[in-house]
Amino acid sequence: MARPGSNTSEMFAGAHSMQFMQVAARRARQRRSWDDRRVASRCRLMTGERPGGSATDSPGRETCLWGSSRMKRLAIRVRGTVQGVGFRPHVYREAVVRGLVGCVSNDAGGVTIDVQGDDCAVDSFVTALRAEAPAASRVVGLEIDPSDLHAARGFRIVESRIDGERVGPSLPADLAPCSECLREIHDPGNRRSAYPFTNCTQCGPRYTIVDELPYDRARTTMSHFLMCDACAREYADPGDRRYHAEPTACPRCGPSLRLRTAAGRLLATAEQALALAAEAIDSGAIVAIKGVGGYQLVCDATGEAAVLRLRERKRRPDKPFAVMFG
Ligand SMILES: [Zn+2]
Ligand SMILES: [Zn+2]
């Protein structure tokens, strides 16, 4: 494989964002699995504790068990940063674990939920929407309206509605790799081993890949990448942490790394592209990294000659550059 020559001062890596490729700060987040929570809910039922622990519980009062004869149905609109953060899977799990029926979907302004079931279970569900919300989400408002009971079975994530009223941004900025994805990247036996575009419902690109809301793969730049069978299975599995992870990808079906000279000649791919790009930066080259949001020009901040050359090209003799620490 050809190596970048010393006269090759610019190289192009068909990469994601530098931030996304780098090992970023781990987000400490305690995440109970769906099954754990199902067990916890059953335990609460057995002990008579009101699931969700609503603040309206009065001491000494006989707490309500799911299974009362009272039923209700609510239409709920959730506002805030609730798309691209695993919020629909969260809603799905909270509903299913309580035996509720209905559906959840994204709309242009947030998330819409139609939920029906036991009176107390629905109350507990509403409490859990905020209390158990995914770490990257931010719920700023819940609009709750009663609806007429209807015949319904099961709970589903349904196709996004594109008619919702747009109320402020509901998509987060790109999210640094979570600890579970990092573990997979560093696991030689994992099918995403060393794959820099690994992501899940808790991390990965968001704002920079979305073409329009509601946030669905079809309306992101990832729509060009057809999921392989393994990724599609994870995407469709409610018990999987990549359930409805819109940018999900793997080495078989997702974006790949390519390193090119300034003239466009392909030098290397995959891990070798990354290694050669790092070597080139170390040897004083300026590397243009094509990320999901554009290009980043990168050089060794301690290399005086490279920084000077970058200043000349950018016509920025004095103004400080952003410095990245790894
Ligand atoms: Zn992740
Ligand atoms: Zn795949």
SSE blueprint and pairings:
Blueprint lengths: L9 E4 L4 H4 L12 H14 L23 E11 L5 H11 L3 E7 L2 E9 H13 L6 E10 L7 E3 L21 H7 L43 H8 L21 E4 L4 E4 H13 L3 E6 L2 E5 L5 H11 L12
Parallel strand pairs: 1-9, 3-6
Antiparallel strand pairs: 1-7, 2-4, 2-5, 3-4, 7-8, 9-10
One zinc ion binds next to helix 6.
Give a quick rundown of the structure.
The protein is of the alpha+beta class.
Main beta-sheet annotation: 5 strands, mixed
CATH secondary-structure class of the largest domain:
Alpha Beta
The percent of residues in helical segments reads 10-25%
What is the average per-residue confidence, as pLDDT, rounded to a whole number? Answer: 80
Q: Indicate the proportion of strand residues.
A: 15-25%
List low-confidence stretches: 1-63
From the 3D structure, determine the CATH topology of the largest domain.
Answer: DHBP synthase
Order of helices and strands: EHHEHEEHEEHHEEHEEH
Task: Give the end-to-end Cα distance, rounded to a whole number of Å.
Answer: 27 Å
Strand line-up of the largest beta sheet: 8-7-1-9-10
> Could you give the count of β-strands?
10
Query: Which compounds are bound in this model?
Result: zinc ion
Gross morphology? elongated
The CATH level-2 architecture of the largest domain is identified as: Alpha-Beta Complex
Query: Total number of helical segments?
Result: 8
Structural class: alpha+beta
Cα Rg? 24 Å
Question: Any idea how many domains?
Answer: 3
